[in-house]
Structures are given as C-alpha cells and as structure tokens.
Amino acid sequence: MTDKEIFGNILDTMLGGTDTTANLICFVYYLEHYPEIKKRLRHEFDTILGEDLTRPIIYKDLDKLEYCDAVIKEVFRCSLIFIINGRINSQSDKVGGYDWPEGTQFQMLFSAIIKHKDYWTEPEKFDPDRFYRVEESDKYLLEKKNMKTTFPMFGGGIRICPGRKLAIIELNVYYS
C-alpha cells in the first residue's frame, strides 16, 4: 500500500463508527417530538420482544423489527452524520459533457440530495413510513424509484461501509 492508501485507511478507521452517539441523541430527539411514532415503535417492541425485559434479544427478532429499522433509516436521513463526501478520480474522464483530468476532487453534497423533492416525498417531513414496507404503498413512489441512489446511509459501491450490517444490528438492539 502507498502512504496515501495507508493514511486513508487509518482515517476511515478513526472516523468509522463514531457517529453512533450522535445518532442515538437524534433518535431520542425524534421519538420525543413525535409521540405517535414512539407509541408505534413501542408496540412493535412489545409485540415482537414481549414484555419480559430480561429475555435476551435473539438474531431472529431483529429481522422482525421492520418499523424500528424504518425509524433508524429516517433518523439517518433527517440527521445526516456526513453531509458531504469527497472523492478523487483516478483517471481522466468525460462526464456530463465536461472533461475531468485525473486527480480532480469531487464533493457529493448528501444534504442536498436527501432533501430534494425530486427524490423524496415531502422531504422536510420526518416520516419513517417512507422506509416501512414501501413496496406496499402507492404514496412513496419517489422513494421506490430512487432509494438506492439517493440514500447514502452507509455510502455505496466499492466504498460502502464494511461495518454497516453490524451497525444496524447494534442500533436495533440498543433501541429495543
């Protein structure tokens, strides 16, 4: 590995996973400001996990926490940890009618994408239902069409966060 690659890996390691505390605070904030969502989430926990608080949560339980997963995703959408992400192209390319020389730095402004009305139904509204059984709804057609390319919760492509599955498991267990 080159020094640049080593530096990049160290930086990724240091920054990766540091957003959990910030996201937890945002999660609590939204639940306190939207009591109907909190009530619905509590109902899902009681239905799936039961009322015995000493019972350990098992992996099969996590797959059933669909609304919790939707709330987590909506919290991430509304409270992005990283609002911008930079990339540098490794070779010259022509995109959008422009020539981009090797080494050009690009910045993706996630906060603009995540709140854009062309990609999200009522983008300023906190609404976990946009992620909950969206395939069954006719309300969230934009989300169905654009979710894969406009929701950068863990990045995408070859640079997607390697700890994304563990992070989601941890968040589901912690919140439940």
From TrEMBL:
Q: Which residues bind heme?
A: 161
Cofactor names: heme
Report a single Gene Ontology molecular function: oxidoreductase activity, acting on paired donors, with incorporation or reduction of molecular oxygen
Q: Which family does it belong to?
A: Belongs to the cytochrome P450 family.
Taxonomically, which superkingdom? Answer: Eukaryota
SUPFAM superfamilies given in the database record? Cytochrome P450
PROSITE patterns for the chain: CYTOCHROME_P450 (PS00086)
Q: What is this protein called?
A: Cytochrome P450
Q: Which organism is it from?
A: Rhizophagus irregularis
* Keywords, sorted A to Z: Heme, Iron, Metal-binding, Monooxygenase, Oxidoreductase
PANTHER family registered for this protein in UniProt: BIFUNCTIONAL ALBAFLAVENONE MONOOXYGENASE_TERPENE SYNTHASE, CYTOCHROME P450 FAMILY 4
